[in-house]
Amino acid sequence: MITMDNIIREGHPTLRRSADLVTFPLSAEDRKIATEMMEFLSNSQDEKIAAQLNLRAGVGLAAPQIDVSKRIVALLIPGEYEDDPPELAKVMFNPKIVSHSIESACLKGGEGCLSVDREVPGFVVRHSRITVSYQDAEGVTHKARYKGYIAIVVQHEIDHLNGVMFYDHINEQAPFAVEDDVIIIE
Ligand SMILES: O=CN(O)CCNC(=O)c1cccc(Cl)c1Cl
Ligand code: NI
User: Fold this and answer.
1) Which region, left, alpha or beta, applies to residue 163 given φ > 0 means left and ψ of -120 to 50 means alpha?
2) Residue 31: its pLDDT value, please?
3) pLDDT in the model for residue 150
4) Which atom of ligand 1 has the smallest separation from the CA of 156?
5) How far is ligand 2, taken at its centre, from the CA of residue 139, in Å?
6) How much is the mean pLDDT over the chain?
7) Active-site residue, 10 included
């Protein structure tokens, strides 16, 4: 199982590499990696398990974060209330943003990353709406459109596949300065 010991931190070269495409049919290893990534997210969001395993919570995880330079991301975005089903629970292989809104958005609270052991305050300006093409575990290609918080998280994960860290998008001179047409998501 994946724990924080398996998550590489900033400074590790794999975080700055462009990850390799996954080929199909999936190898047993790639299938196992995908399953373990999703299991990590679920564990990290379970108060008891996270406390026992000392896990930081995450709503997404990219394979490069466990030093696997492959284009695999796992997303587990909880529903609004405790017993609601997740907003999104999915592993995407070879995800690609194929189109996006002109409009931009950012999270009011900024972003965090399991590979970054420090707070980096500032608005991370991203596309407010995206269309993502990806393959599922059977290699079937899908197209999905996301907006709001989900779109932000998906972009954070796809950035990891391209060696981009969230703070690369923060304006160092004015971390909270944004154009007036940028949507600030609560
Ligand atoms: O790459 C994934 N992580 O580093 C997992 C930890 N970060 C988060 O869950 C997280 C927190 C806030 C905003 C965004 Cl967009 C994300 Cl993604
Ligand atoms: Ni991250």
Assistant:
1) left
2) 98
3) 98
4) 15
5) 25
6) 98
7) no
Atom index in ligand 1 nearest the CA of residue 157 equals 1
Ligand 1, CB within 6 Å, residue ranges: 58-62, 65, 107, 111-115, 152-153, 156-157, 160
Determine the residue type at 62.
A
Phi-psi region of 122 (alpha: psi -120 to 50; beta: other; left: phi over 0): left
Which three-class secondary structure state does DSSP give residue 154?
helix
The CA distances from residue 103 to 26, 106, 108, 156, in Å, are 36, 11, 16, 17
Strand, helix or coil for residue 3:
coil
Residues 82, 186: Cα–Cα separation, whole Å: 19
Interface confidence, given as ipTM, is 0.99
Query: Running along the chain, 186 residues long, what does each successive block of 10 average in pLDDT?
Result: 98 98 98 98 98 98 99 98 96 99 98 98 98 98 98 99 98 96 97
Q: How far apart are CA 50 and CA 66, in angstroms?
A: 18
Residues in the chain: 186
Query: Which of 100, 124, 101, 98 lies closest to 111, judged by CA?
Result: 124
Locate 8 and state its tokens.
């590489």
